[in-house]
Amino acid sequence: MKKEQLDIIKQFLSGYDGPPVKLMEVCGTHTAQIVRNGIPSMLSDRIRLISGPGCPVCVTVTAYIDRLVELAFKEDTIVYAFGDLLRVRGSRYSLSDAKAQGARVKMVYSPMEMIQAAQEDGSRTHVFAAVGFETTTPVYAVMLEEAIEKKLTNVRLLTSLKTMPEVIRWLCEEDLRTMRSLKEQGKTPGEEGGAYQPVTGFIAPGHVCAVTGSGIFEDLAKEYGLPFIVSGFSGEELLLTIYGLVKDQGKGIVRNFYPSVVTRDGNTDAEKAVDRFFAPCDAAWRGMGVIPGSGLVLRPEFAAFDAGSEDLLEDRLSGGCRCADVLTGRISPSQCPLFGKVCTPSDPHGACMVSQEGSCFNSYNYRHH
After folding, report:
1. Are strands 228-230 and 77-81 parallel, antiparallel or unpaired?
2. Which of 40, 60, 267, 357 could lock 55 by a disulfide, CB 3.0 to 4.6 Å apart?
3. Helix and strand numbers, DSSP H then E, in the chain
4. Calculated CA dihedral for residues 339, 342, 345, 346, nearest 10 degrees
């Protein structure tokens, strides 16, 4: 983008004086980059950015962590997980807590590290904490292909895999329910000084759309009359996306501002690999309960690879933590009574402060920068 074009966009966004705009990003990397590039300070106070459920670690319920901890304490089992997940608390312990008490827990950068370990140590069961959205699910499919090829019978997944369209539908429906309720009370939602403003556009996740394609949001855009723009991750790309969403207010349209990586139909090879091993299921989301069809679970023919992923629905937040409200955009991180006081990145109480993609983690760092 030329400097002159960028200057025009910045001037428009900082001076915007039209109807209030509320935009939600649903990608943890977008959340982090918005903060790191100082984008909120470049916007008119009539353009509000909020973070949605775009951090896979943050939306994982405590029952799932409890199951991982239980497995890690088994004498013949080793649990493997990505770094952020180790510090997320279950109803009592995190995986890091369990490791300090002698449980077998290993932090890895790739699921393929576990495959190698399973080959070298056939006396133990090796369980991977398979958390993620459409972006990471193909990696777990490749991992299973490798395990089958190598005839490994000691490899398991504990799945907490989520899909984006269904949770965005839930958010849109929640907005509609809230607005109907306010109107019944004689209040005026959506206007300046009103009781509530619904989301008016979505910054669509570039990483997810690289796999699924931008077309997965077309039905949602038309049904709710909202713009979706697929964005890249640089500061300039995000500013351009926000500019486009402000201009597209009221239009049920999907635009792709990340064409170097994203197409309308996505990566069909990756989708076929996922479809071979996984089937849709109902899934529990922190702050939202169980959302029908919003998850993926191993198909029955691959059940031997499952470490007990069913019925992990319970979610117990630590006292005072409002991660659930932050994830759904009901409040900003600073409105949580624990934020920056007893809950900090060095001593997190909620998953949103643990993950580097979490809204609370990034808001805390933005405030202190």
Report:
1. unpaired
2. 357
3. 14, 11
4. 170
* Tokens coding 68: 């991982």
Residues in the chain: 369
**Which parts of the chain are beta strand (E)?**
21-25, 47-51, 77-81, 105-107, 125-132, 155-162, 201-204, 228-230, 254-256, 278-285, 289-298
Instruction: State CA 38 to chain mean position distance.
Output: 21
pLDDT of 64 over the 70 cut: yes
DSSP letters of 176-225?
Answer: HHHHHHHHHTT--TTSTT-S-----EEEE-HHHHHHH-GGGGHHHHHHHT
Dihedral, CA of residue 4, residue 10, residue 12 and residue 17, to nearest 10: -170
Coil vs helix vs strand at 48 = strand
Closest CA to 49 of 65, 33, 71, 62: 33
Residues 54 and 64: their CA atoms lie apart, in Å, by 18
**Closest C-alpha to 218, from 204, 207, 232:** 204
Furthest-apart CA atoms within the chain: distance in Å? 67
Instruction: Report yes or no: 252 and 223 within 8 Å, Cβ to Cβ.
Output: yes
Q: How far is CA 56 from CA 45, 103, 337, in A?
A: 29, 24, 23
Give the HSE-up count for residue 168: Cα atoms under 13 Å, Cβ half-sphere: 28
DSSP assignment, residue 343?
A: B
* pLDDT above 90 for 195: no
- pLDDT exceeds cutoff 80 at 85: yes
Give the DSSP per-residue string, 133-160.
-TTTHHHHHHHHHHHHHTT-SSEEEEEE
What is the rounded distance in angstroms from the CA atom of residue 155 to the CA atom of residue 144?
A: 8
pTM over 0.90: yes
- How confident is the model over 314-339, as pLDDT tens digits? 998 777 889 888 988 888 898 999 99
The answer to whether the CB of 56 falls within 8 A of the CB of 31 is no
